[in-house]
Amino acid sequence: MSRILDQRILLLVISFSASVQSTKVLSKWKKCGDPECEKAMSRVQATTDYLGPDCRYLNFKTGEEIIVYSKLSRENENLWTGSKGKDFGYFPRDAVKVEEVLIGEEVEVLTKETDFLCLHEDKYTFE
């Protein structure tokens, strides 16, 4: 009985660790095209295939087009956020080349906890 309890505790700890990792704040600041981060900033093209480490990242193949909506700043300037079709997530800026700039000036804003959640297949509901 004690062994089963130990296994359940271990599974709970592993599950909690995975949850904490997937909600880790990647930066406290980001740059956007507007204060709400709703305007597209640029259109980029993938220069390499990219497979992200978890569900917060956007996977793509060389040549695919991505629309950029924000860029992490200060602590982690290498990650941008964008969409490809219905997929949305982070990707390294050095994996793409800018094809078209869509905004004139970037605005720096604080990130939110929800910026770092996995948002696939309607798993999360926000009120």
Tell me briefly what this model is.
The protein has 127 residues and is α+β, with helices and mostly antiparallel strands. The chain has one helix and seven strands. The protein has a domain of 81 residues: SH3 type barrels, CATH 2.30.30.
Overview of the molecule:
The protein has 127 residues and is of the alpha+beta class. It has a domain at 25-105: SH3 Domains (SH3 type barrels, Roll). 17% of the residues lie in helices and 31% in strands. It is built from 1 helix and 7 strands. Strands 1, 2, 3, 4, 5, 6 and 7 form a 7-stranded antiparallel sheet that branches. Strand 3 (65-73) and strand 4 form a beta hairpin. The radius of gyration is 17 Å and the shape is globular. The relative contact order is 0.23. One of its GO terms (biological process) is vesicle cargo loading. It is found in: Endoplasmic reticulum membrane. It is a single-pass membrane protein. Keywords: Coiled coil, Endoplasmic reticulum, Glycoprotein, SH3 domain, Signal. Pfam families: SH3_2.
